[in-house]
Amino acid sequence: EAGVTQFPSHSVIEKGQTVTLRCDPISGHDNLYWYRRVMGKEIKFLLHFVKESKQDESGMPNNRFLAERTGGTYSTLKVQPAELEDSGVYFCASSHGGSQQLLYTDTQYFGPGTRLTVL
Amino acid sequence: AQSVSQHNHHVILSEAASLELGCNYSYGGTVNLFWYVQYPGQHLQLLLKYFSGDPLVKGIKGFEAEFIKSKFSFNLRKPSVQWSDTAEYFCAVTPYGGSQGNLIFGKGTKLSVKP
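Structure tokens for the assembled complex are given below, as produced in the milestone run.
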């Protein structure tokens, strides 16, 4: 079974540019999460999709971040325009889903992350 | 706001030493607890998790953790570490209610095991 994949693995852009990160979850997983780790800090939740619907986007830093999951498969996270403080590692995770109970107990499988550097 | 504290930023041990990594969380209700590990160059992967039952949980690679509700703690232990345990370890919780399974992470503890 293929794991969660993310593309690109690294991205270096200049302040003001746009970057789009992609995540392919494990096939059949309804739940897809985005997290971010800024250097020296904890991994923080950004948002959660259930299939194609945004379930919770309370962690999105501001409206420069836009996430989509068209068709309930892969997801993209676009940052436009990028700022210096957006630098960090962006992780995607997926879990199978099903019941409300499983949301809390299901294992989330993580991708390798995308390291974003904004200069 | 809910938070997770990991007491040690960097732990250095020799092989065969015993390991205990501290984790405390701030949330008064029911939580599920996780330890994830990231080996150098690899994905975050689950070591073990607790959501009910026996508070002593056994995970992969000889790791275990004990949930002590009265102390809001979920410390990770291993009796004898190996060089291959060198990695970064993350404690995380999902509080029931108010979230949809989103993991709340601690800052991580880097473990370096000297051969």
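Chain B touches chain A at residues 4, 32, 36, 42-46, 49, 51, 90, 92, 94, 96, 99-108 (CB under 8 Å). The radius of gyration of chain B is 14 Å. Further analysis is deferred to the final report.
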